[in-house]
Amino acid sequence: GAGVSQSPSNKVTEKGKDVELRCDPISGHTALYWYRQSLGQGLEFLIYFQGNSAPDKSGLPSDRFSAERTGGSVSTLTIQRTQQEDSAVYLCASSLEEDINNSPLHFGNGTRLTVT
Amino acid sequence: QKEVEQNSGPLSVPEGAIASLNCTYSDRGSQSFFWYRQYSGKSPELIMFIYSNGDKEDGRFTAQLNKASQYVSLLIRDSQPSDSATYLCAVDPTFISNFGNEKLTFGTGTRLTIIP
Asked: Residue A33's CB: how many other CB atoms inside 10 A?
């Protein structure tokens, strides 16, 4: 079956503009995660959804970042008033269950965001 | 101290030799440990996970866990050029049973190059 799908694959935007990144998880996966990977850095946790609710938003770097998930499926990560330090690869992952010990993460190919 | 530490490399290993990748973690209560492989420009994919002290073997890969010393390693036997990638160590900081609020903490990765 199809894996985790993210769009766009690449996004170049001007500083100060808003961007929306989309993630379509594997069908039936209830848990959805957003991570950010900057050059030379590990994956930085941003936010996690179980169904449509986000019990853990602790990783969002600032109030310019928000995310939602509708219908227990597609999720959108929105970055308002983008800054150059927001440039990174944004990775989405999904898992069948919330318990990662029983259901590992499946990652999408990411969206490479460049803020100029 | 970072929560999960890895030598960034690059680590160069001749084809056919054993590649040894190491990872240390700071949270002594961590229970679950994962190794992800990430090819350049691609998303991470799970290779192995380990929960118990000792060795776990899967084909050419062996994960080793030593909770007393707080390290986990990945051995790749008979290294192939296709093993050239960045290897990410990930740790579940605190084991929570089902329906907990788990998220992985990733290291920055070790870049492995297999030399033909």
From this structure: 26
Are the beta carbons of A42 and B107 separated by less than 8 Å? yes
CB contact under 8 A, A99 and B88: no
Element (H, E) at A22: strand A19-24
Q: Cβ contacts (< 8 Å) between A98 and chain B: which residues? A: 98-102
Cα three-residue angle B19-B20-B23, rounded to 5 degrees? 145
CA atoms of A74 and A26, how far apart (whole Å) = 10
Mean pLDDT of chain B: 88
**Quick check: A77 and A46 in contact, CB under 8 A?**
yes
pLDDT digits (tens, 9 = 90+) for A79-115: 999 999 999 999 999 988 766 666 778 999 999 999 9
Chain B: which residues have CB within 8 Å of chain A?
Answer: 4, 8, 31-32, 34, 42-46, 49, 51, 88, 90, 92, 95, 97-109
Contact A42 B108 (CB under 8 A): yes
Which residue of chain B is at minimal alpha-carbon distance from A90?
A: B43
